[in-house]
Amino acid sequence: MTKTELKEAKERYFMLSKMIKDSTSKSLENETVDQQEHRKKHLLKPENYVEFFDYYFGVNSGMPLADAPSSKFHQASYEKVFHDNKIRQFRQWFRGAAKSIHTNVGNILHLKENDELFFAVLIGANEGLSKILLSDLQMHLESNERIIKDFGSQLSYGNWADGEFQTKDGRFFKALGLNQPFRGLRFGQYRPDFASVDDCEDRDRAKNPVMIRKYGEKITGDLKKAFHKQRGRLIIPNNYIVKDGLIDFLTDKFKESSHYDLSKVDLATKNITKENCRKLTNWKPSWDERYSREDVINIVEDDDFYTSQREDFNNPVEEGKLFKADTIIHTRIAENEVFDGLLDHWDLSYTGTGDYKAGVLLGIKGIKLFVLEVFCQKCEINSAMEVRYKWFKKYLKRGYNMMGFFDATAAQQAVYTPIILQSAEDNKCPNIPMPMHQDGDKHNRIAAGIGNALFRKILFWDETLKERSDDYELFMKLILAFEKGIATGDDPADTLERAITLAQTFFGYSTEENNSSTKPLIGKQKKKRRV
């Protein structure tokens, strides 16, 4: 934090402290000692947390900082925190859901006055931001007359501007930037028993796996191992704005723990797309005490599609370089859907250190193409083919025989074919994909082939892929990341384009009877009634 930034922060602190002191002192009510104790005992029960928050910090406190009562999700998430003293809770709440004030002020005071917190660490993206988080807490402990009346004068020594302070009841609070050391944290006999990792996700940093691992392991290792033996609550208030970032790293490390908890709250409970955002009238705001349906519409329409999805709906879609996320059409495909045929294509290339094995299965129905299965892994050819043969057996039961292809030059064909044949024998599958290599500018071919299908709105994705396919998310991510000149990661786009082009070549894609140039090379069979 520069001297100028520190000066501005101190001026902000002074101004808000005065406002908090004035407004809370005016809102104090006359009551007997017994009435006060009864009220405090009631508010300190975990099931009454939102009443506690609204009394000291929210709409009932007399302060203009809050404009609506706290919500059910504020209550539900905190009760889990209170009852699990080793919780690892991810608060993926939409922008404007009061993540920081609840986590770093309301939760902390409630835990502290219930003797559940003795040493709290507030972690920001950098040292300066972490001190701002600490200043919000000290501001209330020092100036909020409602807190002082009920729990006494708070501050003992230290200052948020120095990164730490202690209260008169011996509790210690420390600010740390994500890039500062976490090891060996201790205050007297106390080790940290509460930590908040507040808004530390960064979209640029997510592009650097080395940095993600470095900071992620500081939290899962240095910080977690510094926790108190009996208590160690970790809260991560950060909406889900990017894939493969810090949130994904921490989720992967903690998701198998019995203390893992995900509190995911979107702006509204209805899924929003760019096309239907003005048509929906049945949105249900998640914080309906504060937001109306009209508010939701205004918030969504005030941002571009991608920003709104990231910030308001915890959906970190990126605007594609060439293919746009809002042109991807998902649809539900019936179990007994009748297709003209099935075709799969595989890119099994070994060139380049970052290459994936990629495969896609299309269902063809007239001019429409349906993505039924996807594959995208760094693995051996045998593993990819095992998955292919599972697809074959799955759809054979539905009466379909797949037409399959894989990309290979003559030299590659000599290497791949024996492996593919052996894998077919091992899996007892008579259906063998055929080699077919396409020369020319690959990136221009992909741009034209997929771009044309998206523009004409003839490519559809089975919406169940999102839940049942482990590879779908990566496959789609690499499709949207595709751009001309990309060195690695073009395998899904390459195999999808080949599948689209081959499907249109062999099955035809025109409904005009007199259009001989686009008649299918494989004759369409008469439709049989499917039972």
From TrEMBL:
<feature type="region of interest" description="Disordered">
    <location>
        <begin position="511"/>
        <end position="531"/>
    </location>
</feature>
<protein>
    <recommendedName>
        <fullName>Terminase</fullName>
    </recommendedName>
</protein>
